[in-house]
Amino acid sequence: MMAPSNRLVGQAALGALAISVTVVLFLPAFDLDLRPGSPVGQSVGIIAAVLLVGSLGYVLVRRSDARETSKPRAQLLHAVVGSVGVGLAIVHSHAYLREWSALVFLAALGLLATGLYGRILSPQRVGRAFGREAVPFGFAADARPDPRLGAILKEKQKLAGILSGGRTPEGQFVLRVEHWRTRPSQAWRYQRLAATERALLARHPRSARALVPAPERWWRRLHLVFALLFGLGIVAHVVTTVFFAGYVADGREVYWWHLTAW
Predict the structure, then answer these.
(1) What is the dihedral of CA 76, 79, 82, 84, to 10 degrees?
(2) In 10 A of CB 199, how many CB atoms?
């Protein structure tokens, strides 16, 4: 059974996509200039970029010291605002895929697809993997842990004590924005140790990694890749269209707002 918050996210995504496709297909019949660089089209693009970039604020909330009760709300806003932003991006671009700026649009679609998968489908699949269908726990004489894990755990415990001021045990410690701001060197060392620990545990014969389907292991990484591509793409798109409009037009009419100082 789908959680109410996930149902809301799905409805927001489907609604935004349906409305945006309808606008692209039918509004031109009413003689409304919706070209990407028109006053309306450019304004829609600016709003879409602001919403999508703003939704990235969830990353800071997720790793902040804010109350835990505020994080589910921030995650919900992240998903809903991002879905609306992608819908507006479709309206702005007209789903036109012949220019390089279409890569920004495709990255936004990738963000939406991987985000919806991770929010709605992945938890159900992971739940089945660790529920009744999971392989029962067992012992194996030859399945001993990697000897390096002990040293890594001791170092993590030491760093967790330093970063948290001795308030949080290593098993409950999570790196926060505050840790990166105040003690970046120790935070970086802890991050590297945690990554090494995960890699060593994943190779263990009794690792739960084998129970988790590949999409559940990769969707978040793909989501982050699409976020990086979108961020770089939106910066490049804004800089070129505003400051190098003649280059972008390539001999065509420059009909959008731009600067011509140089």
Answers:
(1) -80
(2) 10
